[in-house]
């Protein structure tokens, strides 16, 4: 147990309200548990105040070990980032959609209808030729934290810039080669941030974490084989120690999925597929006796939204495959072109809303 919590409880916080303010709402429950412990063990011999505290320390520690697991909320891996993600957007922009809602609404008021016409460029920075070619797209929204702007180019190269001057603080080159099966150009839609790391997916279907201060690679996790048509173009979402990443490649007969990774280590926690396996919910919307659903598309190339109160994560899926000819995949083809909700901690299915039955791009 953290020593500051024990010290808080051992102080003369006789007022319940004072104790809640100093120690948290769970303090009363902890102390009630300690009282029950002492009732069961009998009354301690009356000694001076300091001796009673010393004698009570061991049972208190033993009791708190069990009680804190029950009554204390689990500590967040990055409380500061989690708070920013749950709050209205201010001067810090720490995720692709601004916060967990992806609504992109800023509460800043310095720019308004009276002065917006006076806006002009403050600086311009050349990113040393990164993504400077017709085959690249520059689609990422920069992240901003503590005066540093972080941006990623269509070649998966990451740059940290001084937000006031545009001066490059550091850069990290991906080394991605040009031999990739990509439908719509070489794009990366953004970064995520948490635990002192920057997270992003690459065109080779690898998720990468960089040290936010230096740009050094901390971990890399392949979530699929790019040789099979998979890539990552979406900006991931970080919250409460978990990183969520989609997958692209709907035009190449992939099986879409949302992958959850441990933010600190990059270990894969779970996968939730957007196309049903045999006997699973939605499998009856694909031709029976075929494996078409296993290569039917439904990628995720946007950033999920998350409701921390409900514990749900939401996202939309892309097109079916083949995308122009649906004759070989009769049926509604769930869960292509749909909205889905999953339990954020486990990936368990909750609900779905098809937006286009038997999706065909024509």
Structure overview:
It is built from five helices and 16 strands. It has 362 residues and is α+β, with helices and mostly antiparallel strands. The chain folds into two domains: 3-71, no CATH class; 79-106 and 123-354, Methanol Dehydrogenase, Chain A (8 Propeller), CATH 2.140.10. The strands form four sheets. A four-stranded antiparallel sheet has the order 1-2-3-4, with no helix packed on it. Strands 5-6-7-8 form a four-stranded antiparallel sheet, with no helix packed on it.
Mean pLDDT comes to: 84
In percent, how much strand structure appears in the residues? 15-25%
Structural class, please? alpha+beta
Supply the number of structural domains. Answer: 2
In the predicted model, the low-confidence regions spanning at least 5 consecutive residues are: 1-31, 40-51, 63-73
Q: What would CATH call the class of the largest domain?
A: Mainly Beta
Roughly how much helix do the residues carry, as a percent range?
10-25%
Radius of gyration, CA atoms, in whole angstroms: 26 Å
Strand order of the largest sheet: 1-2-3-4
Total DSSP E strands: 16
- Report how far apart the termini are: 61 Å
Name of the CATH architecture of the largest domain: 8 Propeller
Overall geometry comes to globular
CATH topology (level 3) name of the largest domain:
Methanol Dehydrogenase, Chain A
Query: Helix and strand string, N-terminal first?
Result: HHHHHEEEEEEEEEEEEEEEE
What's the assembly state of these chains?
single chain
Number of helices: 5
CATH superfamily of the largest domain: Quinoprotein alcohol dehydrogenase-like superfamily
């Amino acid at each position: 147990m953290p020593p500051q919590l024990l010290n808080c409880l051992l102080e003369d916080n006789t007022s319940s309200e004072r104790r809640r303010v100093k120690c948290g709402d769970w303090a009363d429950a902890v102390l009630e548990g300690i009282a029950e412990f002492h009732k069961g063990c009998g009354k301690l011999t009356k000694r001076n105040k300091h001796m009673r505290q010393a004698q009570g320390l061991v049972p208190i520690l033993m009791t708190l070990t069990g009680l804190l697991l029950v009554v204390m909320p689990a500590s967040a891996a990055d409380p500061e980032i989690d708070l920013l993600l749950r709050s209205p957007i201010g001067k810090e922009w720490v995720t692709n959609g601004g916060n967990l809602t992806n609504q992109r609404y800023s509460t800043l008021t310095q720019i308004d209808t009276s002065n917006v016409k006076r806006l002009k460029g403050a600086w311009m920075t050349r990113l040393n030729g990164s993504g400077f070619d017709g085959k690249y797209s520059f689609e990422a929204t920069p992240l901003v934290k503590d005066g540093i702007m972080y941006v990623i180019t269509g070649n998966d190269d990451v740059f940290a810039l001084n937000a006031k001057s545009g001066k490059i603080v550091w850069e990290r080159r991906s080394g991605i080669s040009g031999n990739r099966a990509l439908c719509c150009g070489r794009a990366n839609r953004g970064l995520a941030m948490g635990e002192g790391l920057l997270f992003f997916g690459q065109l080779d279907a690898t998720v990468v974490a960089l040290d936010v201060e230096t740009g050094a690679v901390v971990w890399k996790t392949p979530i699929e084989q790019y040789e099979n048509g998979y890539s990552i173009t979406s900006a991931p979402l970080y919250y409460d120690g978990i990183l969520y990443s989609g997958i692209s490649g709907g035009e190449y007969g992939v099986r879409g999925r949302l992958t959850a990774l441990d933010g600190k280590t990059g270990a894969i926690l779970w996968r939730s597929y957007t196309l049903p396996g045999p006997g699973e919910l939605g499998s009856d919307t694909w031709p029976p006796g075929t494996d078409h659903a296993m290569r039917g598309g439904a990628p995720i190339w946007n950033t999920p939204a998350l409701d921390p109160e409900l514990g749900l994560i939401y996202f939309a899926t892309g097109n079916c495959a083949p995308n122009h000819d649906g004759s070989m995949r009769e049926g509604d083809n769930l869960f292509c072109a749909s909205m889905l909700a999953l339990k954020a901690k486990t990936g368990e299915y909750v609900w779905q809303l098809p937006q286009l039955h038997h999706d065909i791009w024509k």
